[in-house]
Write a structure and sequence with these properties.
The protein is mainly beta. The protein is built from 4 helices and 29 strands. It has 2 domains: 76 residues, SLA1 homology domain 1 (SH3 type barrels); 370 residues, Pectate Lyase C-like.
Length: 485
């Protein structure tokens, strides 16, 4: 039997056509096979998930006739026991965006959710510029040369292998505490395969480019504890990273604020960009977005080696293996993180900084997720969390300083120990959840009574029965006219 080697994912959002999971063998038009469960289908593609949790979206025109016939027999729309929200209905017929109870998030993501990710041809190959890929040689200069040589609307190809980087990519130099970027637009860094093409971070950024900082309470730390990355994109557009693994140097994570800067990807002042089909292993920080707009992070796995988890109990550090996983920061807008899986814990998994707005976290799951509203002001308006499995769920509000989740929308949130923000929590809140202009629909925990249209809005619906499960996908489908009947 030939295995189906999937190296790219078509960038289509998942539609609300969901059935009970069934593992089956999928066959491509050229006879290759892949065992996976059916997740969902839209007009152009099917979403499937392998037993290891990795998800893929495949164009329908690559599937065999037998697969297409099977898909045609699947039930569309909600299950018999589905529950519908009063402010949405079955297919959005009860939605009134004008009353601002449920605002429209459908334009979050790359090209406002209207376009597929580009499938650009290869413009350069890191091997052709001297990269060795044996995990020992320093391949930094080869990467820089390959990116410089890549033409517009082309891909920098990373063949399978392990490539050791000893410096960041995308920066000319650092002078004192000023980072001079090397702007470049309209290209993608693409691995030959997600598991086969590995970028290994040979040393932390703090060792290469020291930048001492202190925390608010005077604790010594480094700038790279919460920012920067080895793949650095700044002052541009139409850039992406896809189909590869980024791996830190390994070893145990020490503790909060002592990160060395094994950071993956950094976007600053970037518009219309993407990260998809990427694994981040043993990193201090995963993907930072700073003043970004319309950026999509899709089908990303965070994981770590067994020895990575910290044994230090400082600031609830025990069992943690990194600082920030994903962060939409410093005024980022209309950014999307969709289909994100955590096998390990970070101090902050799903993060936001002050002035960020209209950003979406969709279809995320992990052992004990943290919704990180990282600001001391009430200045993170209009944020959506939808179809989230928070695991234990007792750390969700750990950093919700001063009621900064005011204006947030929480739709279909599951967790074993979920509760609403409280004034008596270890972070002092200025207001209770009932006083915040938040929306909760399908919250796996206690809620106040149902409200009249407007904010706050609390609607008690079992997350296991709610339809649609993902309000971002449903809003996008309604806007584009692809909603299931």
């Amino acid at each position: 039997m030939r295995r189906w080697a999937i190296t790219t994912i078509v960038g289509l959002s998942v539609c609300s056509v969901v059935v009970q999971a069934e593992v089956r063998t999928w066959t491509s038009t050229d006879g290759k096979e892949l065992e996976a469960e059916f997740v969902s289908k839209d007009s152009d593609s099917v979403s499937i998930r392998r037993a290891d949790g990795k998800s893929f979206q495949i164009p329908l025109n690559r599937l065999s006739k037998a697969d297409l016939d099977w898909l045609g027999q699947q039930k569309k729309g909600p299950q018999k026991n589905a529950s519908f929200s009063k402010i949405w209905g079955k297919n959005g017929e009860d939605w009134n965006p004008e009353d601002e109870t449920l605002i429209d998030f459908s334009k979050a993501g790359y090209h406002e959710g209207n376009n597929n990710f580009p499938e650009w041809e290869v413009g350069s190959n890191v091997r052709d510029h001297g990269a060795v890929g044996d995990g020992k040689a320093d391949d930094t200069e080869a990467f820089k040369k390959a990116i410089a040589a890549c033409g517009e609307n082309k891909a920098v190809l990373i063949p399978n292998g392990t490539y050791r980087l000893m410096d960041w990519i995308g920066v000319d130099e650092m002078i004192d505490k000023w980072v001079k970027p090397k702007p470049k637009s309209n290209y993608v860094i693409r691995g030959e395969s997600r598991d086969g093409a590995v970028i290994m971070l040979g040393v932390g950024l703090e060792e290469i480019h020291p930048w001492a900082q202190t925390t608010g309470n005077g604790r010594p730390t480094t700038q790279w504890s919460w920012s920067g990355g080895f793949l650095w994109f700044q002052d541009g557009s139409e850039v992406g990273v896809e189909n590869l693994t980024i791996k830190g140097a390994g070893g145990a994570y020490d503790e909060h604020w002592k990160e060395k800067g094994y950071n993956g990807i950094f976007f600053r002042d970037i518009e219309h960009a993407w990260v998809r089909n990427v694994t981040l292993r043993d990193v201090d920080c995963g993907i930072h977005v700073n003043k970004g707009k319309h950026i999509t992070i899709e089908n990303v796995l965070f994981t770590s080696s067994k020895e990575r988890a910290s044994s230090n109990s400082f600031e609830n550090n025990k069992g943690v293996s990194g600082h920030h996983a994903i962060n939409f920061g410093n005024g980022s807008s209309w950014c999307l993180a969709d289909d994100i899986t955590f096998e390990n814990r970070f101090h902050h998994e799903l993060g936001l900084n002050g002035e960020s707005n209209h950003c979406v976290y969709s279809n995320c799951k992990g052992p004990n997720l943290h919704f990180d509203f990282h600001t001391h002001e009430d200045n993170i308006p209009h944020i959506l969390f939808t179809e989230i499995d928070a695991g234990e769920g007792d750390l969700v509000w750990r950093n919700n300083f001063y009621g900064s989740c005011t204006g947030g929308t929480f739709w279909n949130i599951q967790g074993r120990n979920l509760s609403l923000p409280k004034k008596e929590s270890w972070v002092t809140h200025q207001m209770l959840a009932e006083e915040m202009k938040t929306l909760f629909v399908g919250w796996d925990g206690k809620l106040p009574g149902d409200q009249k249209p407007g904010r706050p809005w609390f609607e008690k619906i079992d997350p296991k029965a709610i339809y649609p499960k993902n309000i971002y996908h449903a809003q996008r489908e309604k806007r584009l006219g692809t909603a299931a009947e």
